[in-house]
Design goal:
Number of strands: 3
Distance between the termini: 32 Å
Strand content: 5-15%
Order of helices and strands: HHEHHEEHH
Radius of gyration: 20 Å
Amino acid sequence: MIDTDRHHGLEEAHALAEALRPALHRLYRQLRRESDDPGLSPLHALLLVAVTRQPGIGVAELARMEKLRGPTISGHVKAMERDGLIIRSAPDPSDRRRNGLIATEKGQELIKSLKQKRTDWLASELVKLSADQRAAIRAAIAPLEEIGQ
């Protein structure tokens, strides 16, 4: 009996995943589209958010975190430096070759603006839903956050 319940639970979870994945993907794409900044590529936005969240992160660590090759990330970091979005911190005393990355004020403002555009767009869509639909979304936030950990 227990094995049947587990099997049914797995089938139900798989069906839910099949329905949820495309909905989340469309929502993510729409959020990106609504907040696109012509002066910032999606990859640079992703890297800038990472640097903002972890000031002083090294290039190698950033590459590992984003699953990119070192030479690939180095080129992007140089472009972001050239655009005034990030700077390199003073060398690490324990490893003189390592410089951490820090978002400049311009970079921080760009990310803040991007997040605000996304929040504004999402709020404008949520207000179109019924109170019950918004409550359902509110109830789903905690489980979705748990999955994303």
